Amino acid sequence: MIWGSNGITGEKEHPSGIIVGGCDNGVMEVYDASKILKNESPLVLTKSKHVGAVRALDFNPFRVRLLSPKYIT
Question: b or e along 16-52 (b: 16 or more beta carbons within 10 Å of the residue's beta carbon)?
Answer without folding.
Answer: ebbbbebeeebebbbbbbeeeeeeeebebeeeeebee
